[in-house]
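Throughout this chapter, every protein is written as a compact record of paired, labelled lines. An example of such a record is reproduced below:
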Amino acid sequence: MRFSVFISVLRSLGPVVIGISLGFTLSLLSVSWTEEACPLEGKEGEDVASGQDGLLKGARKPSSISTGNDVESEEDFEPRIVPYKQVQPSAPKKVFRAKYISTELGMRERLIVGVLTSKNTINTLGVAVNRTISHHLDIVVFFTGSRNRKVPHGMFVVSHGDERLIWNMFQTIRYVLDHYVNEYDWFYFVQDDAYTEADRIRELVEHLSVDRELYMGSPEEFIGGEMEGKYCYGGFGYLLSRSLLLRLQPFLENCRNDILSSRPDEWLGRCIIDYTSTNCVSEYEGLEYHHYELGKNSDPNKEQNEKFKRALTVHPVSDPEQMYRLHRYFSEIELQKTYNEIAKLQAEIKNVSVLAFEGNRSAQWPVGVNPPFEAKSRFEVLKWEYFTEEEIYSCIDGAPKCELRGIDKLDVAEVIDTAIEELNKKYMPTLHLKKQQLINGYRRFDPTRGMEYTLDLQLEVVNQKGHSRSITKRVHLVRPLSLIEIIPMPYVTEATRVHIIIPLTAEDRSYVNHFLEVFASNAFETSENAILTFLFIYDPEEAQHVNHNDIFIDAKNQINVYERKYPTVKIPWISVKTEIPSQIKFMDIISKKHPVDTLFFLAHVNTNINAEFLNRCRMNSINNWQVFFPIHFQEYNPDVSYHNQPPPATVDLVKDAGHFDRRSFDEACFYNSDYMATRSRMVADVQENEDILESLDIYDIFVKYSGLHVFRAVEPALHQQYRYQSCNPKLSEDIYHRCIQSNMEGLGSRSQLAMLLFEQEQGNST
């Protein structure tokens, strides 16, 4: 029994024992068979040392043994010290990153248009071309030999300084190669006496492959017929691919020197054919370059030719008026085409909606417009506004009813006219409908789809026999939101220093101490990048006693106190004498004392200025682009808003505490250069009427004379304590009445004033 157990154990462990034994045996045999010397590596004097007894004293491979051939003694071995050399870190290579990701990825815009014009036609036909195509295309460049001293507004003009036609064409192609060949795929050139249907040109290039060497236009035979091939006639314009221009670029100088021609379009065609072997074509891959030659004194509305309706370009155009008539004609064609596409898409949506789970109910009205907003709670319910043709029952100032005027009146009139027009489209010729009156009107703004209207109209219905009757019809309309367009703005930063100008009159002296206290905590203590300047305004009588009875002596003493308290702060002040305190006269004095790149903030001494607003002043004021007129939050009279109650230490931005004073234009942010440029444009009007300086304020002159964007918006960070303004009747009637209105609206809210009147009536009755 024991023997059988031993045999079974041996069978299982035997192979393992035999394997281990065999492994040890082979390893011992291999040591004796792989005897080898250590390799001598390195330079002279760095040999591996061994002792006399044959023991290897240097490094060797694990499988090697000493041969006893080295006779150097152990005493001769000296360790070699390798000096440590610190690796000097090399300057990291600066990685260049493009400003735009499209540049880094090699993405290019699709089309650039070059208009060939001249000194004599740039102000007539050139302006007409710019007005008809510039807002449809990304970029339009006008090329001319020489130009007038004054360039038309809104046009990018490149002048070559020479009237030779061939030279101008050569310079135009070279300019495009130097500045635009890496940014655009297609280059379209046209004369200023041709009308271009911009949308059709853009649609054409969108279907063309960018890697083709293409010369496309209206093919013409060369004069004389000696040269083979065809060039593109310049009157109808021509399209060049980027690949073709890059291939032509090395030979452009050869073309200028070797090719003689009297026509610039023929010269360019010979250059392209000679060096790229590319002929002008009017059709490519099923796409045609349609053009039409317009007869003399032709009326676009009377042209019935189908080629005219399909044309990309029409030539020749004799005057700007004809250019505008052509633009109107083709715009109506494109507009009708868009309406037809919309109707087709709506029909397709209706057909597809039948197959949906909810059937036709899944297709919202109007078809293709976002569904109405669905409120999740009662707080999200959109408010309907009730209106008639004369009044609206939702007013900005909280009044229950106010007159319908301005843009709101135009909106209601347009909606009613559209409703009548659509009803007649639906029922004519069986019935003809005429509006009698608007019974009820409702509208609301839905942020997901646009403005919705519901109208109850009383209509007169006339049938084909002439019989009429009066009916009431309810209609629903929607004014959909259009596509949102991002308007590029110049780059600005929050690092600009702001020069704060505070005009002071005798009535404003009591506010100086509070203003300096607030401004010191918001600006002086935080080292805000701003300079405060006071403007002391004396009338002629006060100015005579300034040496022994200065009305602003207390204010000047307070300025000295804060300058001593904050040694790094200097508060300059300027004294002026005038009978009528005009903003323009003050700014004329201040403007001359500051550099042209100064950013001004014109404010009132009763305004609380903080860093948050100063940053918005910097961001919203853009040199040579935009000026900023904030609407401050004006606190109500505390005797009215907190009647029989102590006023709080800080006033919150709530409707019962104050309102945004839309009548006030005292605060303004603008650059000195913009003010100086605007002021120079009103010199002629000032010479005719000097009183204009007193009848206008800063806001008026920027709106009337500057041409800049005038940005006016409510500013929650700009607070003013309540004050009763002293309105000067010597100023213009408009400014005087704005001041009176501001005082009236600043007393309190309608509910607060009504409560005071109610209490007064109660007191009188008892």
